[in-house]
Amino acid sequence: MNKNSVWTIVGVVVAVIVAWFVVSALFSVLWFIAKLALVAVVAVIVYLVLRGAFSKQE
Questions:
Q1: How far is the CA of 16 from the CAs of 13, 21, 29, 49, in angstroms?
Q2: Closest CA to 21 of 11, 33, 29
Q3: Residue 27 φ/ψ, nearest 5 degrees
Q4: What is the pTM of this model?
Q5: Which residues cross the membrane (predicted)?
Q6: If the chain, 58 residues long, is cut into consecutive pieces of 10 residues, what is the mean pLDDT of each piece?
């Protein structure tokens, strides 16, 4: 193997490793945003249920 093919293989391996971490971080951020949105929806539902329950007691 010549020097160019060794550097090509090293470049491919480094690119795959970097891509793995980038995709992993991206999915972590997307999962956090999805979880945050779900918490917001549940909080709004709980707020509306509590407001309805307390407004009927008056």
A1: 5, 9, 20, 49
A2: 29
A3: -65, -35
A4: 0.65
A5: 5-23, 29-50
A6: 87 97 98 98 97 81
The token duo for 2 is 């010549």
For residue 23 the two structure tokens come to 């995709």
Sign (positive or negative) of CA dihedral 15, 21, 23, 26: negative
Amino acid in the structure at residue 56: K
